[in-house]
Design a protein that fits this description.
Layout lengths: L2 H23 L6 H11 L7 H8 L3 H13 L3 E5 L7 E5 L1 H23 L3 H17 L5
Antiparallel strand pairs: 1-2
């Protein structure tokens, strides 16, 4: 197979695992845009203001406000008073949103375990080395 074909197979495998987790948990109800908002909020421990969220996602404050209201009504985020400015609020992911983050971890852990099954120790180390190198080439390496 070619690299392109292998990536396609891997992408479908991961997506299939996501769908299965989502069916069990109910997270399949979320759109890609809604997930973008949740992941942005999950990236910070102190929460963020609506204006910060809108800037991060490159959307208008009005669009962000609409999406935040939807996600809040569905139990994925909550608002708290901003410690620096009593007039402002901070947005925080709820436990329901954090469950999606745990699902993501499980999906990738299951996929990695399935990949490891067909490899010996040397092959596993080599695959990890090559993937690290490829991710660095994409500008995504740690």
């Amino acid at each position: 197979m070619t690299l392109e074909a292998d990536l396609k197979v891997l992408g479908w495998e991961i997506w299939d695992r996501w769908r299965e987790h989502g069916r069990r948990s109910g997270s399949m109800e979320l759109t890609a845009a809604e997930l973008d908002y949740l992941y942005a909020l999950l990236s910070t421990t102190e929460g963020m203001r609506l204006t910060e969220l809108a800037a991060l996602l490159r959307v208008s404050k009005a669009s962000a406000s609409t999406m935040v209201s939807k996600l809040e009504a569905r139990g994925y985020l909550q608002r708290t008073a901003c410690p620096e400015d009593g007039r402002a609020v901070h947005l925080h992911p709820t436990d329901r949103a954090r469950q999606i983050e745990r699902e993501e971890h499980d999906v990738y852990a299951e996929t990695a375990a399935a990949l490891r099954q067909g490899l010996d120790e040397h092959e596993r180390r080599e695959l990890e080395r090559l993937l690290d190198k490829a991710c660095q080439g994409l500008g995504r390496g740690d």
